[in-house]
TrEMBL record:
It holds the Pfam family YbeY. Binds 1 zinc ion. The keyword Repeat does not apply. It comes from Steroidobacter agaridevorans. GO terms for biological process: rRNA processing. Single strand-specific metallo-endoribonuclease involved in late-stage 70S ribosome quality control and in maturation of the 3' terminus of the 16S rRNA. Belongs to the endoribonuclease YbeY family. This is Endoribonuclease YbeY. InterPro entries: MetalPrtase_cat_dom_sf_prd (IPR023091), YbeY (IPR002036), YbeY_CS (IPR020549). It comes from the Bacteria. Zn(2+) binds at residues 125, 129, 135.
Length: 162
């Protein structure tokens, strides 16, 4: 999978593009078929104003948020919370993530987490949304959170929900 990182905010505290790539690859690896290696993901690091505008436009919430996911193609629900259909071969994009740098920094500080771990969590969380996972009910939230915890543990990061 090719990961493009766009930084449209202050670079202060924003991880290197290689980190975003590693986190996104780890989130996708268990779920993408091998024939989808040409898939692309764009991660855009934004400021509060852009995040607020996107959140207001697409979710009717007038405030900035940590991460927004924009899938390129709809995914069909599958068994046991795992989507059964991933982006068809004719789709080259998994989708886009918009991650708000000031919100991620503030949340990491408020939650007493290392900033790098929180950035990783936002990427993994957002990518799982692009893959069709959600947390709309308790069962789905528990399953999605378990996936996030396992992926983040690969990087030595603690459970973000503990």
């Amino acid at each position: 999978m090719a990961v493009t990182v766009q930084v449209a905010s202050s670079r202060r505290g924003v991880p290197h593009a290689r980190s975003f790539n590693r986190w996104a690859q780890a989130a996708c690896a268990p779920y993408l078929p091998r024939n989808n290696q040409e898939l692309a993901l764009t991660i855009r690091v934004v400021g509060a104003a852009e995040s607020r505008k996107l959140n207001r436009t697409w979710r009717a919430k007038d405030k900035p948020t940590n991460v927004l996911s924009f899938p390129a193609a709809p995914l069909a629900p599958g068994k046991n919370g795992v989507p059964s259909r991933f982006p068809a071969k004719e789709y080259s994009e998994l989708g886009d993530l918009a991650i708000c740098a000031p919100v991620v920094a503030r949340e990491a500080k408020e939650q007493g987490k290392p900033a790098q771990a929180h950035w990783a969590h936002m990427v993994v969380h957002g990518v799982l949304h692009l893959l069709g996972f959600d947390h709309e009910n308790d069962r789905d939230a528990t399953a999605m959170e378990a996936r996030e915890v396992n992926i983040l543990a690969q990087f030595g990061y603690d459970n973000p929900y503990a």
